[in-house]
């Protein structure tokens, strides 16, 4: 019986290699998801990404307030301490308050980022126009790049270049006068 089960399992495992298709997944295109979904995903990432930091900030803020106003004799509590035997620990109500403060701070960070990105996107939409009939993108932003002047010690100076240009101009003027005089005779 064991041989039959082993043979059956081997058949299942190796048949997956025989009938497997080797396809590589295609990368997402920009137009695959709507801008609203991009905004929601960005908000989710920023909110959840800031959560550990906001919870720690909320914990620190609560402890400072606790020491300053509630119990000046209490010291700082290690929020990662496993032992609950110490009298210097948070109650369950305090822990819930710290977590709720961290969650609300995290949500504020995510919504602030969303509002800023929406304002930026609307600002760029106002300055860009699209011609839908020919798929031409026209950017009406006037960007002026500053002029950067770099002096290279290996290149001739501007005064030398002007001097050479004057010499070439004089030479060309002399040659045109000679050809004009010869053409008149």
Walkthrough of the structure:
With 185 residues, the chain is mainly alpha-helical. It has a domain at 31-79 and 89-146. It contains 4 helices and 2 strands; from the N terminus they run H-H-H-E-E-H. The protein has helices at 2-18, 35-70, 92-127, 158-184, and strands spanning 128-131, 136-139. The chain has a two-stranded antiparallel sheet with strand order 1-2. Strand 1 (128-131) and strand 2 form a beta hairpin. Helix 2 (35-70) packs antiparallel against helix 3. The mean pLDDT is 78.
Q: Would you report the number of β strands?
A: 2
Distance between the termini: 122 Å
Instruction: Detail the poorly predicted runs.
Output: none
The strands making up the biggest β-sheet line up spatially as: 1-2
As a percent range, the share of helical residues equals 55-70%
Largest sheet: 2 strands, antiparallel
Keywords:
185 residues, mainly alpha, two-stranded antiparallel sheet, 63% helix
Write the layout of secondary structure elements.
Layout: H1 2-18, H2 35-70, H3 92-127, E1 128-131, E2 136-139, H4 158-184
Antiparallel strand pairs: 1-2
Helix pairs in contact: 2-3
TL;DR of this structure?
The protein is mainly alpha-helical. The chain has a domain at 31-79 and 89-146. The chain has helices spanning 2-18, 35-70, 92-127, 158-184, and strands spanning 128-131, 136-139.
